[in-house]
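*** Query protein ***
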Amino acid sequence: MDEEDKIKKALLKKALGYSASETIEEYSLEEGEEVLVKKKVTKKHFAPDVSAVKILLERYYKTYQERLSLMSDEELELEEKRLLQLLKEGKDEG
């Protein structure tokens, strides 16, 4: 995955909103060793970000539309499969 794809994927994630786990661990010294005494795992939801949506639309939408207009039927079918796979991966992560 090249840098441009990574940026688009990160923007898409932020634009759509996502959930992430946060782990907080507390340690104590017992007999000279660190021992885990408390561990808290919480799931946080990050709401969709309008700024990320705006950037996606401004930066990629026109270029994407132009690309689509130049694609053959076979290329369009491949692109449809690629996008459906991205949507599926996004649902699996959340």
Summary: The CA atoms of residues 56 and 69 lie 19 Å apart.
